[in-house]
Amino acid sequence: QVQMTESGGGLVQAGGSLRLACAASERTFTAFGMGWFRQAPGKEHEFLGAINWSGSITYYTDSVKGRFTISRDNAKKMLYLQMNSVKPEDAAIYYCLADRRAYYSGSDFYPGVFGTSWGQGTQVIVSS
57: closest CA among 2, 115, 101? Predict the structure, then answer.
């Protein structure tokens, strides 16, 4: 599996913006779609959305659609999550995971297609 390191978390005011990043350690990053997840205290991991290997297809769940944007820079082996109009309920530890399907060009993304090697995540704290 592609190993990722999350960063960019911190304190953000409700209504504000924050950009999270994931850095890949392997060149194979460019072959796989990537997903963003989060886990709030006492809750299960929540799937937020994904991007395919080339960056041409994105998918968002209803909880973040219209507010968050997923992008990637394959040359830099980086994945991003732009968070806008942040809400108090967005407070969580954020993670990224690689899709297990190399060069998948569809839009059928769901938690089961991603790996399970959770990194250390990056924490987002929202002040209201």
Answer: 101
